[in-house]
Amino acid sequence: MAKTFKASKFQILTKIVIPANLSTFINSLKVNIGLSLVGVISGEFLVSKAGLGYLIVYGGQVFKLDLVMTSVIILGIVAGIMYAAVLLLEKFILQAKKFK
Questions:
Q1: Rounded percentage of the chain residues whose pLDDT exceeds 70
Q2: Residue ranges of the chain whose pLDDT lies below 70
């Protein structure tokens, strides 16, 4: 219908496609927060000389469970903070959308 009213591709994208898919974008962000952390940590398992993944591997090699568990707890806290940030973003977008 927008094409029949001579809307440009940019107008169709900004006025129809993006607003219709905002909930999909937000839900994808929620899921991919954990997956991104898994990717980072697994990369650190293999080639890193520093970072949480390195601490987990090093702690396992020298039998220091405190290093391993502290790293896992930090990962959980970071994931929780990132998830809460996406929830705040979702709340902000939905309220802004409601007032338009």
A1: 97
A2: 99-100
